[in-house]
Amino acid sequence: MKIEGETNVTSTRFGRGAVDGLRHELGRFIVTTMEIPWSLTRERLGGTPEKIFLCESMEIDHIERQLAEVPPCDTIVAIGGGQAIDLGKFFSWKTGIRLVTIPTILSVDAFVTPAAAIRKNHQVEYVGKSTPDPLVIDYDLLRTAPNELNVAGVGDLLSNHTACRDWEIAQAAGKSEYPFEPESIAIGRAILADIMNRADEIARCSDEGLQAIVDGYMRINTICLPAGHYRVEEGSEHYLFYELEERLQRPFIHGHIVGLGVYCMSRLQENQPDEVTQFMDRIGLKYHPADMNIRKEDLVSSLSNLRSFVEGRPNLWYTIINQRPITADWIASTLAGLRF
Length: 340
Ligand SMILES: [Zn+2]
What we know:
This protein is α/β, with parallel strands linked by helices. The chain folds into 2 domains: 12-145, Rossmann fold, CATH 3.40.50; 148-335, Dehydroquinate synthase-like, alpha domain, CATH 1.20.1090.10. It is 50% helix and 12% strand. It is built from 15 helices and 8 strands. It has helices at 35-45, 60-67, 82-95, 139-142, 147-151, 155-172, 182-197, 199-204, 207-227, 236-248, 254-268, 273-283, 296-311, 320-323, 328-335, and strands spanning 12-15, 29-33, 51-54, 75-80, 98-103, 116-120, 123-127, 132-138. Helix 11 (254-268) packs antiparallel against helix 12. The longest helix is centred in the middle third of the chain and has 21 residues, at 207-227. The chain is globular. The protein starts with 11 loop residues before the first strand and ends in a 5-residue tail after the last helix. Residues 156, 238, 254, 258 line the site of zinc ion.
């Protein structure tokens, strides 16, 4: 999670039809993508890639084998959601080749963060540093994805709600891993407030709603990249996701699982849970376990194990999980509001 450098996105191209005409600027290019995003983009993009890498797994052994097959080229075009973008970032970091990112859904913030999320034995690790030149946000292309996937893009902004509080909790306990920055927390909360004010636009995935999500992420970077960490954006809500991912050994739509984390951890923090839940309901975020096929017994086990899970991982920051015991009663009352 350690990040170096002050900036990430080198240039941007935002608007309807932003992908059209891009091919003339790519030279020889390769593509990292998945089947559906590629089928949606190949016509708009045009041209013939030197090679197409379909992202099947982000396990380190697998992506290093793919890396060895990258042919000489001028540009790496990463097209898709989180993992396809991360694969392009990983290649660009390893080879120094120019990166162009074209998110086809906003369900995860991979397109604005410099490090690539990879997996080692199913555990997330963030490696390297890369910067898109340009980051291409094509509203029409984004709207070819189901609304719920773009709405899921608020997940890593919503997480500010619980993550900012976690940092305050850590600071009050004398456990903050970084110099405490009340101003960063204020900005983190202002970003979330702006998103909450655009709930209806986001629910509809209008141009303005989509741009609000992208702007939110770019603004987060102006805090997090100079600071060198994502403390305002990541805390206990993500740790519940890490536990569940390791327990269930399957991927989730990031914004949905983070939404579930915000639901649970805002309650553990006693941090305006009703307001944040109403917002998630209003935009139609699918944060209920039923939406993700998470069984009640698994979520109960995950929450029961959460404290020992985070205590066993010294790289995880101090949060409410370290401080407030998660009891069987608390779990029962928290889960009562969720659909299974
Ligand atoms: Zn996240």
